[in-house]
Amino acid sequence: MAQSTFKRLLVGITGGIAAYKAAELIRLLVRQGVEVQVVMTQAACQFITPVTLQALSGKPVFTDLWDDRIDNGMAHIEFSRDADAILIAPASADFLAKLAQGRADDLLSTICLARGGCPLMVAPAMNVQMWENAATQRNMMQLRNDGVAILGPDSGDQACGDTGLGRMLEPQDLLDALEASLQPKLLAGKRVLLTAGPTFEAIDAVRGITNLSSGKMGYAIARAAIEMGAEVTLVSGQTSQKVPMGAKVIKVTSTQQMLSAVMENLNGQDIFIGVAAVADYYVLNPSEQKIKKDAHILTLELAPNPDILANVTNLPNPPFCVGFAAESENLHEYAEHKRRRKNLPLLAANLIQDAFGGDDSELILLDDKGAHPLPRAPKLILARQLLKHVATMLKEQKTFTGNK
Ligand code: C5P
């Protein structure tokens, strides 16, 4: 799991059955090195005890506006000043109503009202009828307009036996949503198309030619682009990666299918990123049936596949194109040669031994200004850095050409 972009988080827990999930959430946060200060409402203490959360967070838990453990008696002011963000999880219907009205009749609501510029995020959790009630929806709209980030809710089985919207996001999904909401929206309004994973060329009904690409880098870029506000279409070869929430995914097998999917979805895209490890050759005349294993030499005839990226860059009015180069030696030299040959404004290069299959990698970004190394980090972190570079280049391009 990537390190958090925040260091200190105030987690507010309100009264609902999902309060038990807050324990796991805090455990995950602490494991990532985040300093967590827990504040609970009285109702939350009916569902889970402060002792549990104190043990998990390693800090005293506060529940009372009149608590005299804070030196100057200004707990409601101190807490938000010490935090990078406030997360209310679970946020009950009653607490959300309180926030929407700006009431301050207990410690947690007072902290929220006195938070100044500290970002506030809420993870609603309630019965589906309560969630769909016009009053709750009105409160949510008010909170959105007030700049509060709303994480979830999820849909599914509820503790009361109902099914529908109102479940709190699971702890890991909540953490991911929290990270996403804190990313700068550098690609807001942009449309990004990318390829990811390996392509597969059939030899017969069960066998084929493919490569070791896990798809992790492409999926990380798709997720990072969504976090930054982009609309993302992901054309993906076969992988076991989890599809990022909000991405439109088109699953393909062969290179020819990947090319067709890219061309069909290219219209209106601002950015195209070719991350897929495309099979360079396909098998001429693959067998529809499984080839029998006879004891003689089998000869396959291979023909070169089309270059998807080149098809895009050669269009009269291409989107901003980014290529990837995986090399096993002479990384800088081979990659820069590839960038020029493919006529790319930006190319991300990595060594195969550093990148394939792993959760971490290191990249060199090559553009007309030179080389920009990105040191070893989780692929999601590298993806964010790469897209930040893309956003800067797009901005410079716009300033330079003076258009749009
Ligand atoms: O395979 P190669 O090193 O040339 O790949 C460089 C870039 O070109 C990558 O971004 C890859 O996704 C893209 N590519 C492609 N179609 C191919 C081969 C590569 O889009 N047939």
Give an account of the 3D structure.
With 404 residues, this protein is an alpha/beta fold. The chain folds into two domains: 174 residues, Rossmann fold (3-Layer(aba) Sandwich); 213 residues, CoaB-like (Rossmann fold), CATH 3.40.50. 34% of the residues lie in helices and 24% in strands. The protein has 14 helices and 19 strands. The strands form five sheets. An eight-stranded mixed beta sheet has the order 12-11-8-13-16-17-18-19, sandwiched between helices. A five-stranded parallel beta sheet has the order 2-1-3-4-5, with helices on both faces. The chain has a two-stranded antiparallel sheet with strand order 6-7. A hairpin with a 5-residue loop joins strand 9 and strand 10. It starts with 7 loop residues before the first strand and ends with a helix. It binds cytidine-5'-monophosphate. The site of cytidine-5'-monophosphate (C5P) has 14 residues, from helix 11 and strand 16.
Features:
Rossmann fold; 8-stranded mixed beta sheet; 34% helix; single chain; alpha/beta; binds cytidine-5'-monophosphate
Strand order, main sheet: write it out.
12-11-8-13-16-17-18-19
Beginning-to-end CA distance, first to last residue: 39 Å
**Beta fraction of the residues?**
15-25%
- Largest sheet report: 8 strands, mixed
Mean pLDDT, rounded to whole units? 92
The name of the CATH topology of the largest domain is Rossmann fold
Question: Can you identify the CATH superfamily of the largest domain?
Answer: CoaB-like
Structural class: alpha/beta
Global Rg:
25 Å
DSSP strand tally:
19
Which second-level CATH architecture of the largest domain applies?
3-Layer(aba) Sandwich
Helix content: 25-40%
What general form does the structure show?
A: elongated
Task: Give the helix tally.
Answer: 14
Q: How many structural domains does the protein architecture include?
A: 2
Q: Provide the list of bound ligands, each named once.
A: cytidine-5'-monophosphate
CATH class of the largest domain: Alpha Beta
